[in-house]
Amino acid sequence: MKNKVTASSNSISGVYPVTFSFTPRYPQWTPPNVVNPPHWATKPKDIAQIREELLATNVIAVDLESDRLYRYYPRTTLIQLNIAEKIWLIDPLRLKKRTLTKFLQQIFSNPRITKVFHDGRQDIADLKREFNVRVKNIFDTSIAMRCMGHSFLGLEKVVKHYFGITLNKKSQKKNWGKRPLPTDMVLYAQLDVHFLPTLYHILTFELQKAGRLALAHELFEFTERTQPQKVTVNYELYQAVLQQNPDLTPRQQLLLRRLWILHEKMAEKVDRPPWFLFRKEQLVKIVKILPKTEDELKKMFPHIERHPKMFPKDLLHQFIETIKSINALPEKKVLTLYKKEIENAPLISMKKRWITEKKNKNDVKFTPMQKKFYYILIETRKRLAEDFSLDPDIIASKDALKEMARLGLKNLYRRPRIKDFGLAHWDLFGDRLLQIAENLFHSSFFENKD
Q1: Is the pTM of this model over 0.90?
Q2: What is the set of domains in the chain, with CATH numbers?
Q3: How does pLDDT run across 342-353, given as a tens digit for each residue?
Q4: I want to staple 297 with a disulfide (CB 3.0 to 4.6 A). Which of 4, 172, 195, 291 is the partner?
Q5: What is the b/e burial string over 340-366, where b = at least 16 CB atoms within 10 angstroms of the residue's CB?
């Protein structure tokens, strides 16, 4: 192929400058083939310099790293910006929160600057949760890939497809809260934004050629509304554990519930994710074996002694005392508490780990007719996805289908504005959606749905 870019090495060794050898599919959009050492932003003067550099560009690439795998309350620990092929690593752990917050709000709320992410939902949620940032004008390369019907969505696969470069993603789950960061992690952070500006140009060209650019931008707007997720005691996981272990007696279920809450409090106190202490299978094992002493518990799980800071003596004592107290209850009392705490208390009241979007007040139950029409819309979306060779979620989210079901088929002919299904969706899918839904509505498919 023409325009092959040649460099001394295509290995990612962690030694600067890193060079590549690649043959881009779009030679007119060639990313820089050298990754130089990054520019660190650890002081207010660095932020001032970035602010000046932003005046000369209208496209930047963005990525965030956090320590969510290592802390109960996760923090953003690194922010990567690619500004005109110059990569900045902003260190939130060394900058004042107020200074950084003001800067980030200015950048991300500025509609003049296109912010290129790759699967940016979590990053957008973290920016809102931690810095109260409202993100505007994004381009998400992962969503763009989905709009083109591609099934390979991870950044490493996308880069391999377009540039022939294999990224090393081993640093993804490392502790990004440690300082100083080793060279391999720094390089990993740089490469997460190194190719994004070029991908932005390539995918914009492909989307425009396919007539799906407006669809992609509408999905980008939906993504900008991403909210931080509510995290309390993981009740859904607790319920799943109960379903996976139907042999648990009422006493064991009651004990599991008490230990589940205590386990969460332990995790919060030592500032670690709950699974760092005990995994769900281990909690089930505890309620079945019922260790009577802390030593017995340590024999069951040797990691307790290997990580004494994660298991303070007072918390381990509470764990054992909870087991003893539930085990000592008479059967009648167990059944009374079981009925009160499990059958009649479907929610666990605990302090929220971070804020969440308020529940939609219009989220009401379906009427029988709406429920049947919802089944039709699910099938309609499936057939549309096959017609357009797209993921069903690109056609319409389940929330959009629920809103359509409540409106009814007659109202859909007016092409109403629906959350997660805007004008671009109607233009691209509307006629075919109404045609399929109409046919199914008058077919035996509709009659067979309860």
Answers
A1: no
A2: 18-224 (3.30.420.10), 235-343 (1.10.150.80), 368-447 (1.10.150.80)
A3: 765 544 433 444
A4: 291
A5: eeeeeeeeeeeeebeeeeeeeeeeeee
